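Hi U.,

Before I forget, here's the chain from the pilot set. I'm dumping it here mostly so it's searchable later in email.
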Amino acid sequence: MKGSTRGVGAIREVAQLDREGARFFHQANLVAADPRVKYIFGRAAEEYERAAKVLTSVAGKTKRRPTVPKVFPFEDYQRLECYVCGYEAEAEELPEMCPSCGAARYAFEREMTQSAAWDLVARTTRKVSTFARKAVPRVSKEGMKAALAEAMAIRKGLLAEAKEGKAREDAS
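Structure:
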């Protein structure tokens, strides 16, 4: 029984990272200025949600959040500053207009190139995939191994999409 507990724990840890990835890219999407960057972050969020769903289906849900390494740069996207007056706001509550100077919502949005967005997706996806590969030996049940493999395939597809997108942007 101990082996299956360790396996479930490993699956839950990887699922937690995938959930954090989805949450991070939704947050980054909220503050991105360029619609093409919004698309990139939206795609990443969708894929991380798919991977988390696959893993959660075999490990179940738990009230306690597993401890996982810090992979996603949440702190870079939590506080936003109005570029007109310097007023700071929380990203989850992006105002329609700056309460200090009246500037429109876009004064809080972040400029990012498509190449940098694809690079962020690739960098974080590689880190999550590395963590997931380390969890594989802790899993002994075939159903759980299959779920890890399916989630890994989802991340591998996202990584390939990111590499292709970055190469396309760097070439143009």
